[in-house]
Structure formats: structure tokens, C-alpha cells
Specification:
It comes from Nonomuraea jiangxiensis. The protein has 121 residues and is of the alpha+beta class. Helices cover 23% and strands 31% of the residues. The protein has a single domain (3-109), classed as hypothetical protein PF0899 fold, CATH 3.30.2320.50.
């Protein structure tokens, strides 16, 4: 489950961005070539975030497609399937490009209210 290593890095990056602030949401763009499974990603993120200011955050995962270039017919298309064949002719002699990014697009923090403590005394 490669999602664990990916999520550990994301949680670390989110914590650096937050500088101790409580995180409520994050949006992550991941390329299809990473073959991330939504349920595995959510579970891995929850494990990586446990005990941190990120632990209660919701994470929106946006999967971006890769481009398929067919060597047989010359067709080009987009796909999120890492085992993609050409949708035009069905040949599996394709070249894949793109779809390899991993980007933390946004992080939302709990808004601090001056003079109000979030922690009960």
C-alpha cells in the first residue's frame, strides 16, 4: 500500500504549512500513474494524520488523467487507467505521458478568533 508513504509526506507538508494550526480540509491532486485507490488513500491519510493537527481534516482527492499515444493508429486520448489500451483501435502498444504529479493544492485551517482560546482551561 504505497498510499501510506505518500500520505505521510502530505501530512508532514500540511503540518509545515499550518505551523501548529488545526487543519479542517486539504485538496490533493494526484496523477493517474500513481494508481491511488480512494479507499486506501483515505485510510492511509487517517493513519498518517492521527495525533496531529491534521487528524480531523477532510481530504479531497482529485485524480488527473494521463495522455495515451497509440503507436499503432496514432490516436491520442486521456485515461485514468494505468493499464489503458487505445480507445480508437484497441491496441495496447501505447505510450503514456503525464499523470505523474502529486500536488497539495490547498489547505484550510480553523480560523483563529483574537482573544478566544480553542483549548479549555
Amino acid at each position: 500500500m504505497h498510499e501510506i508513504g505518500m500520505c505521510e509526506g502530505l501530512v508532514e507538508l500540511i503540518q509545515q504549512q499550518g505551523a501548529g494550526r488545526q487543519v479542517t480540509a486539504a485538496r490533493v491532486r494526484v496523477g493517474a500513474r500513481h494508481a491511488v485507490v480512494d479507499a486506501a488513500f483515505e485510510q492511509a491519510f487517517a493513519l498518517a494524520a492521527a495525533g496531529t493537527p491534521v487528524q480531523d481534516a477532510t481530504v479531497e482527492l482529485v485524480v488527473t488523467p494521463m495522455t495515451i499515444g497509440c503507436r499503432a493508429c496514432g490516436g491520442r486520448s486521456k485515461s485514468v487507467d494505468v493499464l489503458a489500451a487505445c480507445p480508437h483501435c484497441g491496441d495496447d502498444a501505447v505510450e503514456l505521458s503525464g499523470g505523474d504529479e502529486l500536488v497539495l493544492e490547498s489547505v484550510t485551517f480553523v480560523e483563529e478568533v483574537p482573544g478566544v482560546s480553542r483549548h479549555p482551561r
